[in-house]
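Field: sequence (string)
Field: structure_tokens (string)

Example rows 1 and 2, in order.
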Amino acid sequence: LLKLEELLMLSLGLYLFSFMNYSWLLFALLFLAPDVGLLGYLVNTKTGAAFYNITHHKGIAIALYLTGSEYAVPLLQFAGLLMFAHSSFDRILGYGLKYTNNFKATHLGLIGK
């Protein structure tokens, strides 16, 4: 049921993106960009979890999109939709927001379990 919910959110992100004047190729090329947050794990698990969670938090994604909508800044809308869609896709695959004790420990349970 959770995966279906995430699939619908991914679909919403793609639907909203279809109204933007950006290319689908650009969207596809940048789709994994939020995973730059994984670089925090080069420091330690606490920093890695913080960076990952910031780049995968749907609340932040929605805030970016709405701010871009309110102030007519399409780049913020694009970034928000990209983050939202990417985060939904990750959660379909079982990658949730990270806990600080272990890379595999997420709010959805252990990755790979």
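Row 2 begins here:
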Amino acid sequence: PTKNRCHRMKPLKASNRVVLTTLADGTGVLLHLDTKFYFTLNKSGVAVWNCLEMAPTNVVDLTELLVAQFEVGHDQARADLNSLLVEMRNEQLIDELT
């Protein structure tokens, strides 16, 4: 458990090989420039992405961002965020800094 918690605390950043297009309704589309795959984001996903683009950040700070901007509790925000980040890592949309 301690190792896993430390793993989640490492700073994350948006890959410079991915471009976000924000749509009029606040959702967005990511394009991975290497794979040419598109990924859709809901409003909270766009908020997370924008934060990851501005500066490296960690899961704790991203969870606080979601709680502050959306009607969601800490536990749900953390669970949803972890799912999003796992998918983003698997698709090489974000980088984990060491």
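free_text_note (row 2): Helices lie at 2-9, 43-54, 59-69, 74-90.
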